[in-house]
Design brief:
Structural class: alpha/beta
Number of domains: 2
Strand content: 25-35%
Keywords: Hydrolase
CATH topology of the largest domain: Rossmann fold
GO molecular function: bis(5'-nucleosyl)-tetraphosphatase (asymmetrical) activity
Pfam family, one: NUDIX
Helix content: 25-40%
Shape: globular
CATH class of the largest domain: Alpha Beta
InterPro entries: His_Pase_superF_clade-1, His_PPase_superfam, NUDIX_hydrolase-like_dom_sf, NUDIX_hydrolase_dom, Nudix_hydrolase_domain
Distance between the termini: 28 Å
Order of helices and strands: EEEEHEEEHHEHEHEHHEHHEE
CATH architecture of the largest domain: 3-Layer(aba) Sandwich
Radius of gyration: 20 Å
Protein name: 8-oxo-dGTP diphosphatase
Largest sheet: 7 strands, mixed
Length: 307
């Protein structure tokens, strides 16, 4: 029997100081090591939320996650395996005050950080971050395409279809989604007005004090009447260049994802992944994060991840 792998998440916090890139490292006195802030996955939490939470708890930094970095897997000192998922993370605010697990945080240039790292397996994430910076693909914003959570089946609902509600499992998933949408820096919600979409984004909206914008073009009925509207909402979000979630329905998502794939020409893997989703569909309550650079006509997808 294979031992279960402990899932964890963390990030490489970064900022620019006087035009120079710096990354934040933490020192843990118990292990006397220098590494990236990270921690174990909590119940009812997705890994992106874990990463942002751990950075705030360990390094007293509020961050927005950007593009994913290489995953690290290693044997823990007391045995067993740990898999740590990492993201590049732009620092939004330094909060001050460190918890007992960390007694010092240091900002360093990537070159100096590489010299200070205790573990060889932490170097891979730093090397990837440096490569993204060199290409101008580090400072990204998130455009999220979200399929509504699990709703009552059509055959079990006798009212108007736009009023068909989520089932309890769907409401639970919607609550879980909120932390990860916040972690990716989303601060704008555009949604189908159908109840199953409105209820999917409601916990996130309430948590962040946001007011969703409901657009008929993202509904199934609106899409059937005007099929080009959904794609236009994707293009409008790209033009804004601001962290946005677009919540819609299975039959509508293909058009939205193909529109997004058109902006992924610089990354063949992201383009292929988005087109695959457009063809094969997304799980209910699932979402894709397109990490974008630029805005308007120059906005492009540099990578994408599916949740």
């Amino acid at each position: 029997m294979t031992d279960q792998i402990v899932q964890a998440a963390g990030a490489l916090p970064w900022r620019r100081r006087k035009g120079k890139l710096e990354v934040a490292m933490v020192h843990r006195p118990h292990y006397d090591d220098w590494s990236w802030p990270k921690g174990k996955l909590d119940p009812d939490e997705l890994l992106p939320e874990t990463a942002a939470r751990e950075v705030q708890e360990e390094a007293a930094l509020r961050v927005h996650l950007g593009r994913p970095l290489p995953t690290s897997e290693y044997t823990m000192p007391k045995g067993g395996r740990k898999r740590v998922h990492y993201w590049a993370a732009r620092v939004e605010k330094e909060l001050g005050g460190l918890e007992h697990e960390v007694d010092e945080i240091v900002w360093a240039t990537p070159e100096k950080a590489a010299q200070r790292l205790t573990y060889a397996h932490d170097a891979e994430q730093l090397e990837a971050l440096i490569a993204h910076e060199a290409r101008g693909h580090l400072d990204t914003w998130s455009l999220v395409i979200l399929r509504h959570s699990l709703a009552l089946p059509r055959r079990g609902w006798h009212g108007p279809d736009p009023e068909r509600p989520l089932v309890p499992e769907g409401f639970d998933r919607s609550t879980v989604l909120a932390g990860s949408l916040a972690a990716f820096g989303v601060d704008r919600i555009v949604s189908s007005p159908s109840a199953r979409c409105a209820d999917t984004v409601a916990p996130f909206a309430a948590e962040q004090g946001l007011r969703p914008r409901f657009k008929a073009g993202l509904s199934e009925e609106g899409f059937a009447e005007k099929p080009k509207k959904a794609a236009k909402h994707v293009l409008k979000a790209a033009a804004r260049g601001r962290g946005t979630v677009l919540c819609s329905h299975g039959p509508v998502l293909g058009s939205m994802l193909r529109t997004l794939a058109d902006r992924a020409a610089s990354d063949a893997a992201a383009e292929a992944e988005l087109l695959h989703l457009a063809e094969n569909g997304m799980d209910k309550g699932g979402f894709v994060v397109a990490h974008m650079i630029g805005r308007g006509e120059t906005a492009q997808v540099v990578t994408a991840e599916i949740w």
